[in-house]
């Protein structure tokens, strides 16, 4: 009709099962229209696919997928293309029939392939179109390991006795396949990790750590290791010795020290107790006193130190600090390690035969790890086809392949550790070759005349020499042959006159 407006609108609808929608359109001049529609069919699809599994003999597994479609799709499960039936397979539907699960109970081990198929129910013919039964699949594999092993304790937990307030550590070593689950119990009560009870592990080693053991922590501790193949346990007792009021105790224990010869090592501590304990130091079975090499300080507040002056390698060892009072004593120890500097069996100069593969060796003594570098004429050498660098215990080697005139020069080995470094060097020449300082060939050019001066001629200098003059207009060459007649020749000039 005249004056009527016609608008054509198209849009896509993403369907969910039996979901009704109302769409409203409104123009800028406030004219609007609306209509309702209902999605009656939507193909099945996997919102989430099933995943591969790897498990062990005796275990159960659950495959799970998320599906959608309208009408509600039927779900079938297959293993290697065969429809699954029987009591071993349990199908579940959850969350408004969207989540589907297949639980497979234990059976003998083998690799198995599972799939989930979605299929729409039969639909009637409409006009000339016939709707079939589209089927959609999600596939996954389950790998069952043929071998498994029940947990076995390689090291069982042992009884522990500590002073009140000290650290208590109970440890086991256990193996099994799959990796066992570890649980700790105190007097049959399961322990939960917290600040006062830490559970740590590294590989097959597992530990229960009580940072501040108290009387309430005494009792029987049991470690239980379990997996799908079995369970085992071991137990031990923790005894906590109570400290009497004023009993000596180290609030700060001395730290171990590493230093180079000639340096000073200091061990510091803080001890508490009432009355304030006396402190004694010893190295091994030898008691230490203040002297020219040692200084012992103990202050009324319980802090103190042991100082070792000008350390030498003989000072290396375990130092023990004892705090003693009428109520008892407490001890602690720290180690002093004096790292020796490297001592090198040096390289020796040598004349080497051309074409041989010489091995340059030096020997080092000291505390590793070492950083080793080789140099030729101050330029660092890297491992290559020409050079082979090796280090075996104290022997350090450099092998030179097919030694020739280009390899002649000074070789240097530099060895370093955290204390310092040392080096040795030697010069290697070809056998029968005189070693002399290098000299320069001189070139002269002045007022159109150019010359080449060669000093200290030998037989190798004989041959044809070419002089080439070049400018923007072109180039010109002139050649001359040099013959060596005898040792009496000291130098020669070869010259040409350039006409420019």
From TrEMBL:
Domain Ig-like: 44-113, 151-239, 248-337, 340-483
Classification via InterPro entries: Ig-like_dom, Ig-like_dom_sf, Ig-like_fold, Ig_I-set, Ig_sub, Ig_sub2
Keywords: Cytoplasm, Immunoglobulin domain
Name the UniProt record assigns to this protein: Ig-like domain-containing protein
Native species: Cyanistes caeruleus (Eurasian blue tit)
Protein's cellular compartments: Cytoplasm
SUPFAM superfamilies: Immunoglobulin
Signal peptide as annotated in the record: none
A single GO cellular-component term on record: cytoplasm
Pfam families hit by this protein: I-set
Coarse class of the protein's main subcellular location: cytoplasm
């Amino acid at each position: 009709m005249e004056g009527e407006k016609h608008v054509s609108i198209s849009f896509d609808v993403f369907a969910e099962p039996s979901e009704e929608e109302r769409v409203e359109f409104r123009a800028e001049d406030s004219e609007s229209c609306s209509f309702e529609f209902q999605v009656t069919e939507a193909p099945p699809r996997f919102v989430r696919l099933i995943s591969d599994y790897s498990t062990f003999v005796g275990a159960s597994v659950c495959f799970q997928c998320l599906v959608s479609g309208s009408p509600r799709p039927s779900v079938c499960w297959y293993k290697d293309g065969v429809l699954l039936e029987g009591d071993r397979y349990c199908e579940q539907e959850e969350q408004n029939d969207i989540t589907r699960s297949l639980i497979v109970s234990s059976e003998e081990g083998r690799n198995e392939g599972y799939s989930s198929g979605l299929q729409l129910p039969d639909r009637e013919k409409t006009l000339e179109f016939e709707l079939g039964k589209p089927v959609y699949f999600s596939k996954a594999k389950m790998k069952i390991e043929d071998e498994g092993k029940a947990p076995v304790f390689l090291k069982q937990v042992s009884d522990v006795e500590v002073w009140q307030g000290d650290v208590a550590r109970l440890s086991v070593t256990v193996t099994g396949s799959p990796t066992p689950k570890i649980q700790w119990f105190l007097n049959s009560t399961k322990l939960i990790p917290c600040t006062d009870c830490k559970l740590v592990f590294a590989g097959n080693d597992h530990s229960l750590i009580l940072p501040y053991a108290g009387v309430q922590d005494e009792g029987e501790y049991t470690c239980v290791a379990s997996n799908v193949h079995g369970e085992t346990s071991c137990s031990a007792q923790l005894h906590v010795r109570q400290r009497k009021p004023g009993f000596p105790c180290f609030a700060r224990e001395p730290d171990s020290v590493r230093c180079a010869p000639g340096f000073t090592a200091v061990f510091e501590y803080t001890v508490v107790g009432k009355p304030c304990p006396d402190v004694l130091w010893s190295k091994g079975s030898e008691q230490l006193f203040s002297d020219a090499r040692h200084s012992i300080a103990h202050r009324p507040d319980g802090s103190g130190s042991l100082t070792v002056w000008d350390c030498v390698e003989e000072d290396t060892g375990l130092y023990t600090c004892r705090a003693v009072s009428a109520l008892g004593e407490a001890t602690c120890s720290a180690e002093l390690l004096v790292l020796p500097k490297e001592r090198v069996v040096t390289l020796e100069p040598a004349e080497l035969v051309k074409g041989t593969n010489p091995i340059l060796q030096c020997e080092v003594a000291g505390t590793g790890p070492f950083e080793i570098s080789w140099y030729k004429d101050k330029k660092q050498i890297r491992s290559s086809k020409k050079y082979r660098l090796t280090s075996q215990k104290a022997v350090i080697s450099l092998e030179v392949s097919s030694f020739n005139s280009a390899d002649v020069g000074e070789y240097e080995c530099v060895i370093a550790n955290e204390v310092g470094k040392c080096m040795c060097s030697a010069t290697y020449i070809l056998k029968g070759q005189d070693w002399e300082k290098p000299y320069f060939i001189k070139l002269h050019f002045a007022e159109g005349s150019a010359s080449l001066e060669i000093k200290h001629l030998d037989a190798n200098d004989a041959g044809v020499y070419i002089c080439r003059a070049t400018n923007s207009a072109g180039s010109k060459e002139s050649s001359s042959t040099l013959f060596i007649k005898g040792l009496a020749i000291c130098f020669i000039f070869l010259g040409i006159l350039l006409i420019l």
